Amino acid sequence: MPCPLCNAPASRPSWLGTLQFDGRMYPYVECVGCGSLYACPMPDEQALARMYGPVYEVEAGGPEHFGDPKDPDSVLALLAGLTPGTFLDYGCGDGSLLSRVARAGWNAVGVEFDRDVAESTAKRTGLRVHDRASASSLPRGVADVLHLGDVIEHLTAPALEVQRIVGLVKSGGYLVAQGPLEANANLFTAALKTWKRTSGRTVSNMAPYHVTLATRAGQQALFGRVGLVAKRFSLQEVEWPAPSRLRGDGINPRAVALFVLRKASQAVSSVRPSKWGNRYFYIGLVP
How far is the C-alpha of 280 from the C-alpha of 2, rounded, in Å? Predict the structure, then answer.
């Protein structure tokens, strides 16, 4: 199976090992070309249906002290410089960004994988939210700006799916994407690799929500493959999956270790901010 991001044909066993979910094993391999990790094989449609839904919506929020790594302010800053039109948030979650965009004068429309989640978000925000099935009937070129916030790492065929999603954007419009770079260079990830390799734990019991763990090179290659013209690609290092702050009520030693390691990693990454980090923000022009 070639790399879903850069399409390089060769891979090798990865430091992540294997995830086990619902009686199935999902080994992760490392792309020899870009260094990204991906599940091989990928979850099928039945597995995806079991993985996502209202329970995932709750789990995805995580504990409050872990913080939300998304950057809605950069999205709104882009929109502030454009004539208001249709904004499509593909993977809108609880609709918090949709609501802010609507207040800024845009026609804000959302898409979510699960029908129940889509209905819940529509009811909460009062805005139009499609589920994955109804989103397939959206016309080409419907959006002036389309946002993919922490979506691509969930797509089992990202090149095909992002190409289709890009078709929803008008010529001259923008695709804005942001998400994790879980295999990119930084001190925190290097320490995690070392722990995984020395712990002897090759199988972890958890759902393969992130079927790709991207590097900077892999993520940029994907955007190039779908024909976008890059206007911005920036990196940062956020706390997640370490806690963003320590709670005073019974501090967990593991949480303390992760917190300290992340702070050290952020300091090191600041030396080479264009290469080291664990998260990207991208703006691409649709020709």
Answer: 23
User: Which segment of 106-110, 129-133, 208-212, 233-237 scores lowest on mean pLDDT?
Assistant: 129-133
pLDDT digits (tens, 9 = 90+) for 90-140: 999 999 999 999 999 999 999 998 888 899 999 999 999 999 889 989 999
Q: What angle do CA 31, 37, 41 make, to 5 degrees?
A: 95
pLDDT of residue 200: 83
Return the HEC string of 55-116. HHHHHHHCCHHHCCCCCHHHHHHHHHCCCCCEEEEECCCCCHHHHHHHHCCCEEEEEECCHH
E strands of the chain, at which residues?
Answer: 11-21, 24-31, 37-39, 86-90, 107-112, 128-131, 143-149, 169-180, 203-205, 212-213, 229-236, 279-285
* Arithmetic mean of pLDDT, 262-271: 97
Is-contact 50 58, C-beta < 8 A? no
Phi, psi of 143 (to 5 degrees): -110, 145
Is the Cβ–Cβ distance between 168 and 141 less than 8 Å?
Answer: yes
What pLDDT does 59 receive?
55
277 near 186, Cβ under 8 Å? yes
Determine the average pLDDT of the residues in 12-38: 97
Which residues have a Cβ under 8 Å from the Cβ of 175 and sit 6 or more positions away?
145, 146, 147, 148, 165, 166, 169, 228, 282, 283, 284, 286
Q: How far is Cα 268 from Cα 29, in angstroms, rounded to an integer?
A: 27
The whole-model pTM stands at: 0.92
Q: Please report the pLDDT score of residue 65 as a whole number.
A: 47
